[in-house]
Every structure is written in structure tokens, then in C-alpha cells.
Amino acid sequence: MDNNKIVTSNYNKKRLFIGLLAGSYLTLVLIAAVMWRISAPGLREIADILPLVSGIVLALFFGIVGLGIAGLVAAAAGLPFFPFVLRRTTGMVNLLFPLVVFFGGLLGFKRRQIESSFVSVSNKIFHRMNIKVPADRLLVVTPHCLQLDTCPHKITRDPMNCKRCGRCDIAALVTMAEEMGFHFFVVTGGTLARQTVKRIRPKAVVAIACERDLTSGIQDVYPLPAVGVMNLRPNGPCFNTHVDLDEFRRELENIIILPERKKDEGAGQNG
Ligand code: SF4
Fold it and tell me: What are the pocket residues of ligand 1 if the criterion is a CB atom closer than 6 Å to any ligand atom?
């Protein structure tokens, strides 16, 4: 696939979630306006000022949410944005997510498509915020299905139990963790992933998983910044899955602050 096609498909991916988010927001505004209009006479009977006060409160609330969404759209589209506003908007988007899925469902979009688009938007925001952390403050988590199903080694207890036979991608990930110094764990579910985050107390998380687990994981660890790398499923879901190791390494190189010595070595090799 040429680069233009990749850029276009990524852009379209993000557009779906942003479009549904904007649609959900406008629907909420419409519902609130209708409810306000219906309740205004009753409120006026209690006190003349009440319709005006409730109208101002609603306008302020939806105005702030609207500004947040506008900031998100700007950040996703590569335009200037306010990082402070965007950080709060990310939490708000997590709250609005079920509504976005419902609204998308009414329009015929599958949950998986919406989740995939959400991960794409979330990753874009992460990168626009230029988040960088030292390797020892980065946690990488992958699901158990990345391990070859016939492998007898208990890597969920300790990934270093992997014998690096190379028959699944765990070998390459363990080697990268050793080379670069990030924390790497293979988890069997969301509960174990959350426990690992609590124990390691990282500054950022990179997760490899399907769109469903990435969506819930990114929302669970908020306000901790998280990047999602979609797994590859040539054998169907949750069975002998893979990861694009080049894409994964690129993500790590974007996030990890390299020690000066390694940077110099890299520059020496390039020059
Ligand atoms: S690479 Fe590691 S985890 Fe994968 S099959 Fe070999 S020993 Fe098992």
C-alpha cells in the first residue's frame, strides 16, 4: 500500500469517531434545548428568573463541552490546540463513549469500527501532546493470546520465562524490553492489567491488543496517557495473534526519552 493511501485511511478512521462524537453532542444539545423549552413554563411558576438561570447554566455547560470537542477535532486534524483543554476533553470523551457507540449503532456502524477509530484518535492526541518518558517509566502490556498456544512456558508469571525460540512475537518483545529498558508484562485480562499499572506506577502505557481491549484499557488507565497498537489476527480473534514489530518499535522510539549516550551512538552511526 502506498503512503498516500495509508494517510488517507488513517484520516478516514479518525473521522468516523469525531463525526459520531460531534453528532452525539449536537443530539444532546437538541434534547436539552427541547427539555428546557418544555420545562420553562413550570419553572417560571416557581420563580420568574428560573428559566433564564437554567438556560444560562445549560448554555455554559454545552459551550464548554463544545469547546473541548472543537479542541479535539483541531488536535486530530493537526491544527493548533490548547493542551490544557485537550487533557480534560479526553476524560469527557471517555464519558461520552457509550453514547457515541449508541449513536453510531443507529447509523449502522459496528462497535468494532468505532473502537478502532477511537484508538486512532486517542493515539493522535497522545502524539500531539508530545508525551515522552524515560524507558523505566514506560509500561508495555500485551494479552496472553500473543503467545503461541502450544508454548508450555508461563510467561504471564514472568515474561523472562520465554525461551525465545522465535515461534511467536513474545521473543522479540522480551528482547526489546531488555535492550530499551521498559517494563513488559503479558496479562490475561483487564484486572491483571490494572493491577500491573498500580504496581509499576508508569508515566505512560503502550498496549498491544484488539480494538475492544485497547478502548477499555485506554479509558481505564485515564488520566495516565496510553497508546494502543492494534494486534494482527491471522488466526482469528484471541488465538496466536501477532503484532507489527516495526510499528511497535516506531511507537517506542517516539515515546521513550533515550539516554544521552544512546542518542550520541545513534547520531554517530547515522553520520
Ligand atoms: S517465543 Fe517464547 S513464548 Fe513464544 S513460543 Fe517461543 S518460548 Fe514460547
Answer: 147-148, 151, 153, 155, 162-168, 170-171
